[in-house]
Write a structure and sequence with these properties.
244 residues, alpha+beta, Beta Polymerase, domain 2, two-stranded antiparallel ribbon, 8 helices
Length: 244
């Protein structure tokens, strides 16, 4: 397994390199967004040219909260959406507009739709399609969306990125329920770190659902990265084999 690139130091070096790249690209947004590397690149399990790179772009001027979370402490410039899990499949929710911020993103303006009661929900379908309209720099070829992901290739197709546009979700009740489970692994410190990283919602619904076009999937990508990075050496090697 060491000869295949699963040596501990090699994996650590890859993780640090991609984390540093994510920090640099986040800094370039001047506080407007955050970049997250996920999947095999974030786990240090694949080489640079071995597979595509999975990225999440989280906008900072929209935040989603579950019921019971106090929104009065959120800065006025931030747009607030409330997650609604009724009539949605487990792990999914709908996003109801609660308040506009002082800065309203174009994607929010273009992708809200009203129900029969006049309530405004953020459409996952429209959100993905609206981001497809954004022009990329020369040399990047954007492809059709696949679920919530927008694939693109560059360097004549030699490299591929799968980009997902996500929103931050405040859902303390879900995280607290997970943290309070009896377990022998991970350690309490790791559990605390996972909880502190919070959750995201990505624009993809359940296929065939009546509300597929306005459903969003609840994800814990940063927490999953932490859990994988805390596996033992033998567990990581087995995990890597299972992913191939």
């Amino acid at each position: 397994m060491k000869f295949l690139g699963y040596w501990t130091q090699i994996r650590q070096g890859r993780r640090e390199a991609y984390n540093a790249l994510a920090r640099l690209t986040t800094a370039q947004t001047c506080g407007n967004a955050m970049w997250i590397t996920t999947s095999s690149k974030a786990e240090g399990l694949t080489c640079f040219m071995e597979s595509d790179r999975n990225l999440i772009l989280v906008t900072n001027d929209i935040i989603c909260s579950e019921d019971g979370v106090d929104s009065s402490i959120i800065p006025a410039k931030v747009n607030i959406l409330r997650s609604r899990s009724r009539m949605s499949y487990p792990g999914h929710c709908k996003l109801l507009l609660e308040r506009y911020g002082t800065t309203i993103p174009i994607q929010l303006k273009h992708t809200l739709c009203e129900d029969e009661h006049g309530s405004k929900f953020l459409s996952s379908d429209l959100y993905v399609n609206d981001w497809l309209k954004v022009k990329h720099r020369q040399g990047i070829v954007q492809h059709e969306s696949a679920g919530s992901s927008t694939p693109s290739t560059f360097y004549d197709g030699k490299l591929q990125d799968d980009l997902v546009h996500a929103l931050r979700l405040n859902c303390p009740s879900i995280l607290i329920r997970w943290a309070s489970r009896h377990r022998n692994w991970p350690t309490p410190n790791v559990v605390k770190e996972v909880v502190s990283l919070g959750a995201l919602v990505t624009p993809v619904g359940i296929e065939g659902s009546d509300y597929e076009h306005v459903e969003w999937r609840i994800c814990f990508n940063s927490g999953v990265n932490v859990l994988v990075n805390n596996l033992s050496d033998a567990q990581v090697k087995l995990y890597g084999l299972l992913k191939r």
